[in-house]
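From the shared-data thread, chain only:
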Amino acid sequence: MDIKMIAMDLDGTLLTTDKKLESRTRQALFQAAERGILIVPATGRSLTGLAPEVRALPFIRYVITGNGAAVWDLERQELVVRRAFSTEKALELWDFISGYHTMQDACVDGRARMEPEYYDRVEEFMQDEPRCLLIRSTRTPTKGLRELVADEKTVVEKFNLFFREDREEQRQQAREDLRRLGGLSVTSSLGNNLEINHIDATKGKGILALASYLGVSMGQVMAFGDGENDISMLQAAGMGVAMGNAPEEVKAAANLVTLDNDEEGVAYSIEKYVLKIR
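Structure, as tokens:
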């Protein structure tokens, strides 16, 4: 397979559990880039929440953020495509999800924002240190978030709901309630969360849009992921690779399964199928 683009989820995929980009993975990415292959982060994170060590890679030009809500050309600081909520829909959703009394955030104008009262209580919803650090390092405490969501001058790309670990029944009920609203893409990536996007904002449609923009066929795209929000991307790519740490439903959507993220499964598969050095 003649791979021209490699799209990768970050958390649980490219990065280790403690959010590091290891040297072997870094080297594999550099070697692929030297062959002219596009390296594209495809994440649920906001643009401002991209892992610094990933954004600093010199060959990273295009990124897919917010689960496909925005595809960016970083070199030109331009959007390739954006699939966001209308102001009316964003406010409707904010008021709807506020009724669940969970920790919540909103991605507004490319930045994930959270009310300070939740930002200061992250440990109530995230039971391990790496996930607590992830939330705090990628969210901006913002007072009056509802007013910001309702402002017609802002663009809302995504909402996040975080449920306490013992509230799985409530999370599943919320998923069903949101699906009944229609026009939404509802997925999960952290086990106890729900990620709410416009129906057309998926990682799969994100890489389809970028590949079309760049003249790359989907048969030339390799994609890596570990979460439910990666399934559409794994199915769209010519070679969809699920991480060893992914749940069974994600593995079932992929063409093959690699090692887990702490074993540098991304590097292993790039070396084997792209660089041909294994």
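The mean pLDDT is 94.
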